[in-house]
């Protein structure tokens, strides 16, 4: 290392990058301990620590708690929304079920069209905060559903994903640590990579995050925030109980860690637990959306943060897109005022209840977890069926499911499980056909590759 003017830790990270690029260090190789490498090259342990952190920021290596630092393996399956051909039976995406939305949207659009002056006003630039009357209407509707938000602090976003992005960009800087469930939403992992954040996994059980694990992770990593989906967690469907919600907020308060609550599925249950933001609005950034409950084409989400972050979030919206479309917020307001939003939500809930009855019957005897009004379920594979074999057999039958690999945080092994979305097929009949194919896979039928050495 003799590149004058370049810090030693950067030179060391560059050398690691070169050796990985030449194949001298292979994916999965364990790197020397900090002390061993410091002694070998004659630098301080702190220099090695910074070099490894820089290499991790570049996506070259990954640190595994209690195991060491390893050359990062190639990215697993990607996460993107794909249009499948008619031969593919999809259980992949937890999109809202196909119900008739045309009638209610036509009525709302007609009402908008009948008021030319209002339409002209909606076609002008508006404040990035959104129109006050629209925020008030949404806050009142959410309040009836058990979500207590302040219309003065409520902001519109272009969907819940945009809300998560805004929160990360506002609170975090490159190199910061972010905690999340060890199995988590792939969109969070993608945003963290884009913003050069370190995702640190937290252990969970069938109810969700373990408060004691959150406490241990806060002490070890000193994170900027905790990302959590407390209701119908993606992918496991876990829902935190009241006591655990209070405990997690208490831990984060103790460590001065902001809670980023992704409540994108929170409106779906008929019996809704109070969201985290209700319990401590001064410690929680709450993100939600109307895509799951009403219609994804609206691309309308909402966000509320503690007061000290509001101005920065408003500036973020302005930098991203100046404003959220006032035409869409007006349309959502009309759907609420006409009662159509309630009817659409109830139709979605009823449809999912029927679909999960079908799924439970088709997959009886297998370890399937789901919420009666949720979109996705979590299926643990039979002990004798490897995950790779399951995915191969599913593809051979033209069946789309999502591997646990997509949801595993860096450094965490993927369990032998898949996520399946009962909401994705266009009809109950198509759902039953797809589940029939999946049952064949689980039963081990069909051709297998020959064993070779």
Overview of this protein structure:
The protein is of the alpha/beta class and 453 residues long. Helices cover 42% and strands 14% of the residues. Strand 13 and strand 14 form a beta hairpin. The two termini are 43 Å apart.
Provide tags for this entry.
4-stranded antiparallel sheet, 14% strand, disordered C terminus, 7-stranded mixed sheet, 17 strands, 453 residues, alpha/beta
Seen as an oligomer or otherwise, the chain set is single chain
Strand sequence of the main sheet, in spatial order? 4-12-11-10-9-5-6
**Proportion in helices:** 40-55%
- Shape, please? globular
What separation lies between the terminal Cα atoms? 43 Å
Number of strands: 17
Low-confidence stretches: 449-453
Please state the CA-atom Rg, rounded to the nearest Å.
24 Å
Number of helices: 16
Biggest sheet features: 7 strands, mixed
Strand-pairing-aware structural class = alpha/beta
Mean pLDDT, nearest integer?
Answer: 90
Strand content: 5-15%
List the topology elements.
Layout (H helix, E strand, L loop, with lengths): L7 H14 L12 H8 L3 H13 L3 E4 L3 E4 L17 E2 L11 H12 L2 H7 L9 H13 L10 E3 L2 H12 L5 E5 L4 H9 L3 E5 L1 E2 L2 E2 L1 H11 L3 E4 L13 H13 L3 E5 L13 H4 L4 E6 L11 E4 L5 H12 L4 H12 L2 H23 L4 E4 L5 E5 L6 H10 L2 E2 L1 E2 L13 E5 L6 H16 L10
Parallel strand pairs: 3-15, 5-6, 5-9, 9-10, 10-11
Antiparallel strand pairs: 1-2, 4-12, 7-8, 11-12, 13-14, 14-17, 16-17
